[in-house]
Design a protein that fits this description.
This protein is an alpha+beta fold. The chain has six helices and 21 strands. It has helices at residues 46-77, 91-103, 107-112, 126-135, 254-272, 306-314, and strands at 138-143, 147-149, 152-161, 164-175, 178-181, 186-189, 198-200, 203-204, 209-212, 215-221, 226-230, 233-236, 248-252, 294-295, 301-303, 318-319, 326-328, 336-343, 346-352, 361-364, 373-374. Strands 1, 2, 3, 4 and 5 form a five-stranded antiparallel β-sheet that branches.
Length: 375
C-alpha cells in the first residue's frame, strides 16, 4: 500500500501462484475449499512394483519349501525307502507299499510298514531279499477293497512269487500314526537242521524258527559231509505263514557215506578177531548157552558169512531225526561162532547155532575224533 492510497479501502490481490488445497483424508474425492479440484491420483512407481513382486516370490518360495519338507517327512516315516505311504497312507496304500518294498528288495522300507517288526532276524535284509527275488521275484501286485472294522482291517491282495500265484489278505491296524501291517513276516523252521550249521539264502541261521518276508528261500548246510535233498527252496507265500519243510531232508554226501561204511568195516574187523566172550559190535555171547553148554573163555572164533560181509560194504547210512549229525547203519547180519565147550562132562569144539548178530553202528560226524559206537 502507498502513501497515495492512504484512507482507501484495501484492494484484493491475486497471488502469482495458487496451490490447490490437499484433499481431506476422509473424503479423497471431495472438492477442496474454495472450489479448487484435488490433485489426480498417480500410478505406483517401479520400485513399488518390484517390492510387491519380490514379496510374492518370497511367499511362493516359502510354500514350496513347506511342501518339500512335508513330502520329506512323509518319506522319512517310510524308513527312507522311497515309500510315501508308511505311517500316513490308507489301508490300501500301506499294503501296497509293503509289498512293493519287498518286490524292490528294500528291507528297511518293508519293515517301516510293519507294526513292531522283528528286525533282529538275519533274513530281513536287502541281501536276502535280493537272493529271494532272483530265485522267484514278487510281481503283479493287485490291491483290492479293504474290509475295515474300527481300527483293524483286511486288505485283499493278489501277486505272484515266481510261477506261484498268491491270493491272500494283508492284516492292517490303525493308530495315531496311521496304518501298519500286523504280522508282516512268515517263519521258516530250522530246528530240524540243528548241528548242521544251516543257511537260508546263503545267510547262517540258528534256533527253531526265523522270520522272513514273503518270497523264496533256499536252504543249505555247511557241516562237511552233509547236504540237503528234496524241496530245498521254500516259498513263504504270505505274511504270517509257516511253510511246510517236510519235503526237505539232510543226507550224507557220497564221500561221507563211504567213509562211514569204511569206519564200520574197520570196527567189525576188530571185533571179529577177538577170542573173548566180550567182543563188542554186539557180538558178545554168554559163557553158558541156553542148552547148558559152557564155552571156554579165550577160545571163541567168529567168522563173517559172505552175505554179511557184502552188507557191511553196501549198507545205506541214515541220519538221526533228533540229532542230524548222528549217522547210523541198519541191520548188518549175523556171524558164525565156534568155541571149545563142555556139556554133560564131555569137552570138545562146539558150533554155536543162532549166533549173535551185529548191533547198530553209529557215529556223530560233527564230533572231532568220533569213533563207531554200537547199540
Amino acid at each position: 500500500m502507498t502513501e497515495d492510497s492512504r484512507g482507501e479501502e484495501p484492494q484484493e490481490t491475486i497471488p502469482e501462484t495458487t496451490e490447490a488445497a490437499p484433499a481431506p483424508a476422509a473424503a479423497p474425492e471431495a472438492a477442496a475449499p474454495g472450489g479448487v479440484a484435488p490433485a489426480p491420483k498417480k500410478g505406483l512407481g517401479t520400485g513399488a512394483i518390484l517390492g510387491i513382486v519380490g514379496g510374492g516370490l518370497v511367499v511362493l518360495v516359502v510354500l514350496i519349501v513347506a511342501i518339500v519338507f512335508a513330502i520329506s517327512a512323509l518319506r522319512g516315516i517310510a524308513g527312507g525307502g522311497g515309500s510315501p505311504f508308511a505311517g500316513g497312507g490308507s489301508a490300501e496304500e500301506t499294503a501296497e507299499g509293503y509289498l512293493t518294498a519287498i518286490a524292490d528288495g528294500d528291507a528297511e522300507a518293508a519293515l517301516s510298514f510293519i507294526y513292531a517288526p522283528e528286525s533282529s532276524s538275519p533274513l530281513l535284509t536287502d541281501d536276502v531279499l535280493a537272493a529271494s527275488q532272483e530265485l522267484a521275484p514278487l510281481t503283479d501286485i493287485v490291491i483290492g477293497e479293504p474290509d475295515i472294522t474300527g481300527g483293524y482291517g483286511l486288505v485283499p491282495v493278489t501277486y505272484s512269487i515266481g510261477d506261484t500265484p498268491v491270493t491272500t489278505e494283508i492284516s492292517v491296524s490303525q493308530d495315531s500314526d496311521g496304518w501298519t501291517v500286523t504280522g508282516g513276516t512268515g517263519q521258516l523252521s530250522v530246528y530240524q537242521l540243528d548241528g548242521l550249521e544251516p543257511t537260508i539264502n546263503g545267510v547262517p541261521v540258528s534256533g527253531e524258527y526265523v522270520d522272513a518276508f514273503p518270497g523264496a528261500y533256499e536252504y543249505g548246510v555247511t557241516v562237511d559231509g552233509f547236504a540237503l535233498e528234496g524241496e530245498t527252496v521254500i516259498v513263504v507265500t504270505a505274511p504270517s505263514e509257516y511253510p511246510d519243510t517236510s519235503g526237505m531232508n539232510a543226507v550224507l554226501t557220497p564221500e561221507a557215506a563211504d567213509a562211514f561204511r569204511q569206519a564200520v568195516s574197520a570196527s567189525v574187523d576188530a571185533c571179529i578177531v577177538s577170542t573173548t566172550l566180550e567182543a563188542g559190535c554186539g557180538l558178545t555171547i554168554p559163557a553158558t548157552l541156553s542148552d547148558g553148554t559152557v564155552l571156554t573163555e579165550g577160545t571163541i572164533t567168529r567168522t563173517l558169512p559172505a552175505e554179511t560181509r557184502a552188507e557191511i560194504g553196501a549198507f545205506q547210512p541214515e541220519l538221526s531225526y533228533d540229532v542230524p549229525t548222528l549217522v547210523t547203519g541198519g541191520y548188518l547180519g549175523s556171524v558164525e561162532v565156534t568155541a571149545e565147550c563142555t556139556k554133560d562132562g564131555a569137552t570138545g569144539t562146539c558150533s554155536v547155532l543162532f549166533g549173535p548178530s551185529f548191533g547198530t553202528p553209529s557215529m556223530n560226524l560233527a564230533t572231532d575224533g568220533a569213533v563207531v559206537e554200537w547199540d
